[in-house]
Structure formats: structure tokens, C-alpha cells
Amino acid sequence: MGNTSARFSARLLIERASASIIIGLVFFWLAVNLVKSPSQFFQASVIGISNGVLYALIALGYTLVYGIIELINFAHGDLFMLGGLFAATFISVWFGQETPSTTGYGVFFLCLIAVMGFCATINVAIERFAYRRLRRAPKLAPLITAVGVSFIIQFIGIRWNGSGPRTWNSVLPAGEFVISGVHIPYTTIISFAVTIPLLVLMTFIVTKTRRGKAMRATAQDADAARLMGIDVNKTIAFTFALGGALAGAAGLLFQQTRGVTNYNLGYQLGLIAFTSAVLGGIGNLSGAVLGAILIGLVQGLNDGLPIGLGQQWSQTVVFTILILLMVFRPTGLLGKPMVEKV
């Protein structure tokens, strides 16, 4: 018994020492870059945080659905892609707005409401016709179904957008302002101005409203929630609608700030957003936002700092950090150990 306890203590000590060394090296790297080029450091940080808030909108959809029915909805990233296509069509084709103007700004905010409703409706339909009958099935069945839905949405994206990237003009202003050598585009400010209120509103709905309490009760024990008079089907559908609306907002922001759509964007950004949710602690809303900001920062700093591996290694760096975190903290940064329900 004593030997087992000693081995456990030694392993724990080694893990903590290894984690401390890795964290120390990261901070040393950041400090060296900050001293070498402060303006470049803060410029890369602004870009990273701007990407991070976009990832957060998508990551919350993953973590909301997983938190309530423990399903990794791999089609969620492709729903974001569909939202971007809808936004481009709504603004440029249906309303013919391709340059910044007062009318263009009005159409942008009108599109924000429309694309959130569009993606929420699509997500609820997916839950109703693809996932609902599989709730009590073995976990592999809804997972494979989610992959199948992802391919269906990608096919719709190819028919809608074409097989290659498509560029669009933006109705958002293209200028920037400079603070101590750090360039901050107006589009970044607009992204924050749209994203932060949405995140606050979503948090308020989940934590303060009756529907949010029903969501938390269903996530804890669906059968007990049903016995207490909660309509579990409607609660889960509302969760999918909430996640879909956030994905739609992310699609609009990406399309207008990057000026491009592609049928496989959902795979690329969806994978990063899912990684953000896992990094922060899958099922934890604050963790999803934290993980998204951290991944955005890691990418921005790695790509933009004078001493870094460069953009071609960006994905490798992100997933290396994820693997190391899973080794030392499998539940994520803010995740809690899962208790098996019996």
C-alpha cells in the first residue's frame, strides 16, 4: 500500500514539474517577443482575440448540445458555413449591397437577425428529424448520424457556393485606427460589438430564465426533469436553436470580415471551435469562451510574432497544446470530472 502511494506521489510530482516547465517556457517565449517588438506583440494579440471571439460563437454551439444530450454535433461547423452563405446571398444578392453605406449597415443588422433565425431553424430541424429518435440509442449511432448530416450540409454548400472559394464585397467599413503603433481595423471593433452582447444574452438566457433552468435541469437528469413537468423535447430543441443562432451570427461576421465563403469552411473552423470547447471543458459555457480566446491568441501570437514557428505550423501548435492539456488535465481548463449516471 505504501509503495503504491509513493509511486502515485512521484508520478504526480513529475506531472506537476513537467507542466511547470512547459508553462515557464511559454511565458519566457512571450516575454522575449514582448521585449523584442512590443507593437508587433500587441498587434498579434488583437488579431488573435478577434479570431477567438469568432471561435467562441461556434464553440458554444458544440458545448451547449453536448452539455444537454452528450452529443458531439459534428454538423455544427457546417451550419456555420451555411450561415455565411446565407449572409452573403442576403446582403449582396437579395439586397444588392456591396459597399459601406447607411443602407448597408441597416441591411447588415437585418441580416444578423435573419441569419440567426435561419440557422436556428435548420438546427432544430436537424435535431427533430436526425437526432431525436437516437437519444437512447448507443452513442455511436447519433455520432455517425452527425457525420452524415455534416456531409449533407457540405453538399448543399457545394451546390450553393460552388467547389472553390468565392469572394464577396463587404458593407462594413474598411478603415482602421492606430494606438501606439497597433492597427485595429473597424471590422474588429464591429465583431466585438456584435459578439459580446450575444454572449452576454446567451449567458443570461441559460442562467437566469425559466427556459435556461429547464436546460440545466435536463442536462443534469432528463428523466427527473420530465417528471417535474419540463417538456424535454422542447427544451432540447430550444438548445439547438440557441446554438444554431450563434453559429449563424458567426457565419455573418466571418463572411463580412473575411470577404470569402467556401463549402469546407465549416470543417476547418468547426474543428478549431470544437477544440476550443474541449480545451475549456466540454459542456462548460465559460470554458468554451476561454478555450476559444486562448486558441485565437495562440494562433495570432504564433503567426505574428518575430520569434515563432510561423503560420504553416499554426494548427500543429494548437493541437500540441491540446494534447498536452489532455494529458495533464483531461477534463479541460474549467471542466469538472464526469460522474457516470446509473
Element order: H for helix, E for strand: HHHHHEEEHHHHEHHH
Largest sheet: 2 strands, antiparallel
What structural class results from the helix and strand content?
A: mainly alpha
As a whole number of angstroms, the C-alpha radius of gyration is: 21 Å
Give the domain tally: 1
Please report the distance between the alpha carbons of the first and last residues. 30 Å
Stated plainly, the CATH topology is called: ABC transporter involved in vitamin B12 uptake, BtuC
Number of strands: 4
Query: What is the name of the CATH class?
Result: Mainly Alpha
β-strand amount: under 5%
Which regions have little confidence, pLDDT < 50, spanning 5+ residues? none
State the strand order across the main sheet. 1-4
Number of helices: 12
Q: What's the CATH architecture?
A: Orthogonal Bundle
Q: How would you portray this structure in words?
A:
The chain is 75% helix and 4% strand. With 342 residues, the protein is mainly alpha-helical. The protein has a single domain (35-328), classed as ABC transporter involved in vitamin B12 uptake, BtuC (Orthogonal Bundle). The strands form 2 sheets. It has a two-stranded antiparallel sheet with strand order 1-4. The radius of gyration is 21 Å and the shape is globular.
Task: Set down the secondary structure blueprint.
Elements: H1 2-36, H2 38-69, H3 76-94, H4 102-131, H5 140-161, E1 166-167, E2 176-179, E3 182-185, H6 186-208, H7 210-220, H8 222-227, H9 232-258, E4 260-261, H10 265-280, H11 285-304, H12 314-328
Antiparallel strand pairs: 1-4, 2-3
Helix pairs in contact: 1-2, 2-6, 2-9, 2-10, 2-11, 3-4, 3-5, 3-9, 3-10, 4-9, 6-7, 6-9, 7-9, 10-11, 11-12
